Each structure stands twice: as C-alpha cells, then as structure tokens.
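Researcher: Here's a chain I'd like modeled. Treat it as a single chain, no partners, no ligands.
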Amino acid sequence: MRSSSAFAAGGLCALILGGAFCPAQDEKSAPIYSVTVVSHNLVAINYQHRTGPTKIDFKGTVLLPYGHGVAVVETKKGRFEIDCKFEHLESPQRFALEYLTYVLWAITPEGRAASLGEVVPDASDKAEIRVTTDLPVFGLIVSAEPYFSVSRPSDVVVLENEVRRDTVGTVEQVHAKYELLPREKYTYQVPSPNSASEANAPKVSMDEYEALLELYQAQNAVQIARSAGADQFAPDTYMKAVQLLEQAQEFQKQKKGARSVVTAARAATEIAEDAREVATKRHDEENASGGGK
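Model: Modeled as a single isolated chain. Structure tokens:
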C-alpha cells in the first residue's frame, strides 16, 4: 500500500532551499534562474489519422542511460490519450539537489514545448502517467525540474521517445528550438550533506514524503520567482504565492494532514510560476523600451 511505503526523509530535507522560506533573503544573492535557447533534434509522430492505439518507446539519454519506458497513444474523441510507463527513473536529485521532480513534455514540429504532467517515481524507480493532448503531431521527452509547474523544460532531459518497429503513424523529424533552463544556473549553496545523518534519518510514509516533496517544490518556485523580480514586477501574484507557501508550512507544523499540505503547496507552486512569467515579460518589456539598466 502507498501509505505503508517508507522513504528516507534525510536527503529530501537537505534540499537546496532547506529550512523555512524567508522572503527577506539577501538581495545580492546570485540568480538561480536563467534561460537560454538551444537546438535539439527529436523524432515526432503524426497521430492525426490513427484510428487505433500505437506504441512508442522511451530511451534514456546520456544523463540517465538505464532509464526506459513505453507509451500507448490512442485517439479518443478528437484528443490523443497517452499512457506511459517508465522504469529505472532514478531520483532527480542525482543531477542536483534543486531538481525535485520529472515532467513529461510534448514537443511540436515548430519547437513549442507543452507540459503534459508530472512524473513521480515510486520506491522502485518506476512511474506511470496517463495524459491527453490536442496536439496531433508531437515528440515526447521527460526532463528533471525544480518544480512541477515549470512552463518550459530544463536542459536535464533524461528520456526521449523512440519509434518502434510496430509504431503506426507518419514519422516526422523535429528540429525543436525551444527555451531550456540550464542546470548550472541554480546557484543556492548549501553545505555538503552528511551521509551518516541521512542514513539515520527517520522513515516517513509515502503520503508524508509526497507532502514534503510538494512543499520543497513550492519553496523552489517562490524563490525562483523572486529571483526573476516577481516581487517587483508582479507583487500581488507573488505575495499570493508566498502566503500559500506559508500556509502549507503552517499546515505541516500543525500536522493538518498531507492532503492539506499538498493542496496549499501545489497552489503556491502554480501561482509562483505565473508570477515568474509575468515578471520576466515585464522585465523584458522594460528593457526593450530603454527603461532597464
């Protein structure tokens, strides 16, 4: 049962943001969020005229060579249902402590990246996700992310779709040029974790682990939004995210239950990403008009 699964809390609690969120963080801290544009090739499949299900594989990249998976894509009332199963999807924190989750993306031939959903590995490094999309032509990737509601993929791409011999559909080559978040730009610094203390860390249930994970994702999202100037360019939205994060932290302290913590934390994460996007857009507009320094 999920509720009886035990996970070590030590590694998770030694996260890059460890401790409570502090809005009054030093203004001179180095930025933790930076965007660059890179080119990436990916095979896409045109599923538009399919009337039955077809399978594709997922192959691990050099970052996760043993990772793999399979997906079944089927047309359902004008939409495309994608049922994915993954194996050997190791903890995203192997890439850096900032990375807390995985996200499944559809990439169009024009290079647009659409988030399809969060991929959460279990204790056996396996994961399943069933999602839908309106896109008729797309490639699929899985990337490690600092939180689930990111609006574009990081450059930590761990899985890519691969055409099988029995894949049915028109295969198209995608030259996807899209914005990626380079992992080396997350610059919060913490002391090296104490392996002995982590080994002796208390075990928590799956529900408690997921609540902690959501809480730290929310902290990542709020901190990243702030580093993008959300407190200046989108103050109302940013403060709403801060308040929701503080509410989630208070729920955790008061032991209100994992569901309450998760609900508030996920809301904080989504709103923080909205604030970050607004701030980035307004900052760019100000620079374009000559108002920036």
